[in-house]
Amino acid sequence: MNSADLGRRVGVPSTALFTDQYELTMVQAALKAGTASRRSVFEAFTRRLPEGRRYGVVAGTGRVLDAVENFHFDDEMIGFLRQQRVVDEPTLQWLADYRFSGDIWGYPEGEVYFPGSPLLRVEGSFAECVLLETVILSILNHDSAIAAAASRMSAAAGGRRLIEMGARRTHELSAVASARAAYVGGFDATSDLAAGFRYGIPTVGTSAHAFTLLHDTERDAFRAQVDSLGRGTTLLVDTYDVAEAVRAAVEIAGPELGAVRIDSGDLLLVAHRVRQQLDELGATGTRIVVTSDLDEYAIASLAAAPVDAYGVGTQLVTGSGHPTCSMVYKLVARAGSAEPDAPLVPVAKKSLGAKSSKGGRKWAARRVDEHGVAEAEVIGTGAVPEELAGRELLVELVRGGEVVAREPLEAARERHVSARAGLPLSAMQLSRGEPVIGTEYA
Amino acid sequence: MNSADLGRRVGVPSTALFTDQYELTMVQAALKAGTASRRSVFEAFTRRLPEGRRYGVVAGTGRVLDAVENFHFDDEMIGFLRQQRVVDEPTLQWLADYRFSGDIWGYPEGEVYFPGSPLLRVEGSFAECVLLETVILSILNHDSAIAAAASRMSAAAGGRRLIEMGARRTHELSAVASARAAYVGGFDATSDLAAGFRYGIPTVGTSAHAFTLLHDTERDAFRAQVDSLGRGTTLLVDTYDVAEAVRAAVEIAGPELGAVRIDSGDLLLVAHRVRQQLDELGATGTRIVVTSDLDEYAIASLAAAPVDAYGVGTQLVTGSGHPTCSMVYKLVARAGSAEPDAPLVPVAKKSLGAKSSKGGRKWAARRVDEHGVAEAEVIGTGAVPEELAGRELLVELVRGGEVVAREPLEAARERHVSARAGLPLSAMQLSRGEPVIGTEYA
């Protein structure tokens, strides 16, 4: 049982099959060759940010810890692998006993990152580390993409409320992880009940056009909603004529009406009109929620509009143009023999082109200028230079197979706010640009 | 237990919380107003295809049927909703008893679709149908987006083998659904073990750079792999120097070497060189697998290259630029009272702009020309014109709450091949264009 979750059953019984077949066949070949137990260091990192993005946001770390803890092959899975002849009997025996017993360090959740940042460093035997590749990348690539979009949207929204409403636009469990990542990135609530159930994220709801259309008149629908849900409810006012709907809404709910939602039309124009009308009707405290294919640019363009909350769906859960990150999981060092104290040798792919990578077990630190503003992501192997002491980014997450760094989701959410605030101001620009600080190799 | 699955535990115990909160509050208000039991018809459709796409592919129908069957609120869920005060006690009671008891018709999985196609038609009481909105849309929007990308890739690949390798680029369960949708869209296999476990999709694997780097030399690595996995294995030849690696590979495995994988560089050029080298070494039967950020355009550009199989990751699982469809789930007709035989009244949102929709319970049929080639998607309400008899697209999926249309995944895969073959040839063009047939309202 994870202390950070609500003790609720979720997901598959084990994460072990969220794995590419080649991880298992590599384990088989390495077991036979006697190289499976060579001490190894894998790192997850990205060679570049999505085009035009100025920073990345680490999200999913908490889910990675759950995944590592729940990574074990039960009898049914072993039976499947045997039946499909994926690997041989000695490997099946090894898999049946598998529990990750190594160490993991990484950027804490909510932290920002840049090209080359060693987001996660996994150490142990080759076999135990290589098995985790696919599930670690699935989680980090997905969740970080959503959190990055959420962070841009929350920067654009200023202090206004942001509601995640994208469940219907993505896979039903991706939706739950998206709500979680959006919360890390600065969203305030979600419409997704499973995200509330699983992660304790505040859930909210408004009303749909279907509810209005179910009733004989719009007024009947409003009356039904207010009767049952109270005056604090949010009425959807764009099924027929907005001005008429706003009039009816205030007439039925009174000036205590909680909010109205606008889901179509020119939101800037309509929001102004509706605000004026609400004020004229005395409903000065009634809030305006807008939805309808919003992204960070649309949110920014509504900065001057009398909008109280944004509901964001499609563009959030699809990462606003970048539905995945390009994180990879690479062997960067390994021992030259299976001896436990054999020294680590840095390794790296040497092929031409953009896919080469830097060998060696890495540390990372963020150098700041005299005002405390970040000026470089410094990455190195070996000893950390004295001037960077206290600025190191990796924290211990798993020690000898035991998760040691669980935290409430709020902690990641708060960390993101302060990490982003430590970047140069240009990080908040929505326009396309280069990473806001450079990556330096010490 | 679903007859179409392998009887394996997967997913959450129930799909009922993959639901936006407003579905539940609307049910509460409708229960109180006495309108919850009005007979209603909801339809899932899309107003447009993703920009430039010529056809859509229905995928996820089988998963929708599973989701409907498993949509029930267990005690823990009810407890959560009570604790969070999402809805009142009478509504909790109603939810605790909830089982969908209505009817569902829809386009069969693998079928192609166009703007306006009524992909799923859900009939029952308002309350029982509205609850299913989010999970139905999650599944159809996600799975159809992946299947559409897969279909374009399979068209571009001609008869060459396509392997889904995108698990690491998307949410771990989205990956499983993606492998399933890709299979429907024409892929042959997946690297994702969970997809093999859950859906019986053939799984395959090659090898990673980490395996080569683990060993003291590339030759050691190749020897280890061939020793353990046999000569039929796929060796990765681009860790250091490709020509040297190919020479070593054939030397170690002999001309019976199964395949080599190339994962970087100018694939067209490298594939030609590798083929020539393999042939010179007598390994004329050794296949060439290419991977590395492939999409349908890259696949098409390799048509003249001596490539035997494509491994596709990122671009497949992110829908090749369109990670979601824009399907919506709208109330199109409902009774004017709660009487079981009250006639259905068509309803539709009337707001200005692109978000209006057509009311009424719909049928759809594909009209063909004298050569049997599709020429229009015809949609109507009321009686189907005689000339379209036998060309109707919706099939019965659920009758009185019971799933009546389970089928093996192969059936959907085969249906897609024949549905696509029935379209005008321009459907296969990868360039941006309009939907290949128009939508007509009868």
Automatic annotation (TrEMBL), chains A, B:
Modifications the protein undergoes after translation, according to the UniProt entry: Transiently phosphorylated on a His residue during the reaction cycle. Phosphorylation strongly increases the affinity for substrates and increases the rate of nicotinate D-ribonucleotide production. Dephosphorylation regenerates the low-affinity form of the enzyme, leading to product release.
Catalyzed reaction equations: 5-phospho-alpha-D-ribose 1-diphosphate + nicotinate + ATP + H2O = nicotinate beta-D-ribonucleotide + ADP + phosphate + diphosphate
Domain named Nicotinate phosphoribosyltransferase N-terminal: residues: 17-141
Stored InterPro entries: Aldolase_TIM, NAPRTase_N, Nic_PRibTrfase-Fam, Nic_PRibTrfase_pncB, Nicotinate_pribotase-like_C
GO molecular function: glycosyltransferase activity; nicotinate phosphoribosyltransferase activity
Annotated keywords: Glycosyltransferase, Ligase, Phosphoprotein, Pyridine nucleotide biosynthesis, Transferase
Record-listed E.C. numbers: 6.3.4.21
Pathway: Cofactor biosynthesis; NAD(+) biosynthesis; nicotinate D-ribonucleotide from nicotinate: step 1/1
Domain of life of the source: Bacteria
Family from the record: Belongs to the NAPRTase family.
Function noted in UniProt: Catalyzes the first step in the biosynthesis of NAD from nicotinic acid, the ATP-dependent synthesis of beta-nicotinate D-ribonucleotide from nicotinate and 5-phospho-D-ribose 1-phosphate.
Protein name, per record: Nicotinate phosphoribosyltransferase
Species of provenance: Streptomyces rhizosphaericola
